[in-house]
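Please decode residue identities from the backbone states below.
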């Protein structure tokens, strides 16, 4: 098995191209370490917080298997016709010789995955005695033909993956260790020799070593490579992942401005840096920006359908309607629990807007806008308002459109691009207002009205 994967990997490396399509941000970190482990014929474990594509990577290993391999027909453990390991396989070859019936199994059938839970038993993973099987075949209970094989033997000549390894009890881990080291197990006190040909791969959250369980030392020592995963290191990588994974096909033309995509990713980055309120040991899954974008798209879809239109766009205001996709993915510290998860999520969106605002504007640029609101000006933004009415409202605020276009012109001179129009212009104007709210220079009500600053309220 490991030689098969190694040779296919060597061929893939010579050809060039992506080894694991759809895995973004690991090209220079995680992927080279996985390649090294496979070339070394190592079993390995991926260590990382939730939402770091660990399971996806393990499932992608099937692309390094042969398209199909022959097995003895009827074998529970995918016996190789030339080297059977089970009593059934050996007896079939001895009785039938060159007439032994075979079948071909593809890559999908050669990958077995198990989510570790404390209630997993040796019978689940290794096997158990089957009295009915023994009675029907006239076998003794100690006979291998009386045994019902578990998941691991059935993964013979394939890949066996265990997610959240520390959740397995010590007894189960010992059974895995015996299979890896000795190739045999004991089922109900009867020793069974199983020289399995299998690649064992695992995943775990580093915090689980102390929080829910631990990997026993003998098993950990036998795992050849330990590979650390991580969250996206840049906004660009994060945006690419979310764009790839989020469900955006809604049967309507729904535009998602680049600025909105950026702010969504910044929400996750802000949460990962907020160690005062958000539990960083649990992590902030990359699924959060994915589901947040999907929820924001749904809010824009609802607005577009209500107006009887076929085209629409996601607005920054939709992110506050998408908080339902954030709250369930935040594990809070004591201070965050006191504040409340919805309040924390709303503040993270505000801080993400402020971060994007700071990258584009200076407080001095916004002076005319702040003066307008300090002078008693009010801007009411309706959630259902069409784009042209929104732009009319933004044009009524002195200096707002000029500020946005001047910033875009400066960024255009540095990195290329064009003056924002349409949904992009709406998002940029919203960013200015949200950024000023986050900096406590103006305030916004729950109904979407922007007005003068009210004490310390946003």
């Amino acid at each position: 098995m490991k030689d098969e994967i190694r040779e296919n990997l060597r061929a893939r490396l010579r050809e060039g191209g992506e080894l694991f399509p759809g895995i973004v941000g690991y090209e220079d970190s995680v992927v080279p370490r996985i390649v090294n482990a496979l070339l070394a014929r190592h079993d390995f474990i991926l260590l990382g917080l939730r939402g770091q594509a660990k399971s996806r990577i393990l499932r992608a290993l099937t692309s390094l298997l042969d398209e199909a391999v022959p097995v003895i027909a009827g074998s529970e453990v995918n016996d190789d016709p030339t080297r059977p390991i089970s009593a059934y396989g050996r007896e079939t070859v001895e009785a039938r010789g060159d007439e032994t019936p075979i079948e071909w199994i593809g890559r999908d059938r050669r990958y077995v995955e198990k989510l570790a839970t404390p209630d997993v038993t040796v019978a689940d993973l290794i096997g158990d005695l089957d009295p009915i099987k023994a009675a029907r075949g006239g076998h003794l209970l100690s006979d291998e033909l009386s045994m019902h094989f578990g998941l691991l033997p059935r993964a013979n000549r394939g890949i066996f993956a265990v997610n959240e390894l520390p959740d397995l009890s010590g007894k189960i881990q010992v059974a895995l260790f015996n299979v890896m080291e000795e190739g045999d197990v004991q089922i109900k006190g009867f020793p069974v020799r199983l020289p399995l040909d299998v690649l064992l791969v695992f995943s775990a959250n580093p915090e689980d070593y102390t929080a829910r369980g631990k990997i026993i030392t003998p098993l950990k020592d036998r795992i050849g490579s330990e590979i650390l995963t991580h969250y996206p290191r840049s906004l660009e990588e994060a945006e690419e992942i979310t764009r790839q994974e989020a469900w955006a096909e809604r049967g309507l033309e729904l535009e998602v401005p680049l600025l909105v995509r950026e702010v969504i990713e910044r929400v996750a980055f802000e949460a990962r840096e907020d160690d005062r309120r958000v539990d960083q040991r649990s992590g902030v899954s990359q699924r959060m920006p994915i589901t947040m974008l999907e929820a924001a798209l749904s809010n824009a879809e609802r607005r577009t359908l209500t107006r009887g239109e076929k085209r629409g766009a996601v607005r920054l205001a939709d992110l506050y309607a998408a908080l339902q996709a954030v709250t369930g993915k935040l594990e809070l510290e004591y201070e965050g629990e006191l504040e409340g998860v919805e309040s924390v999520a709303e503040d993270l969106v505000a801080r993400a807007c402020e971060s994007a605002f700071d990258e584009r504007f200076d407080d001095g640029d916004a002076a005319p806008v702040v003066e307008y609101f300090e002078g008693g000006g009010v801007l009411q933004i309706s959630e259902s308002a069409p784009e042209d009415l929104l732009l009319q409202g933004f044009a009524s605020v002195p200096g707002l459109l000029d500020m946005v276009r001047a910033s875009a012109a400066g960024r255009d001179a540095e990195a290329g691009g064009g003056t924002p129009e349409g949904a992009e212009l709406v998002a940029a104007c919203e960013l200015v207002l949200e950024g000023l709210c986050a900096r406590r220079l103006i305030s916004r009500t729950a109904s979407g009205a922007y007005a003068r600053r009210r004490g310390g309220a946003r």
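Observation: DSSP finds 21 helices and 16 strands in the chain.
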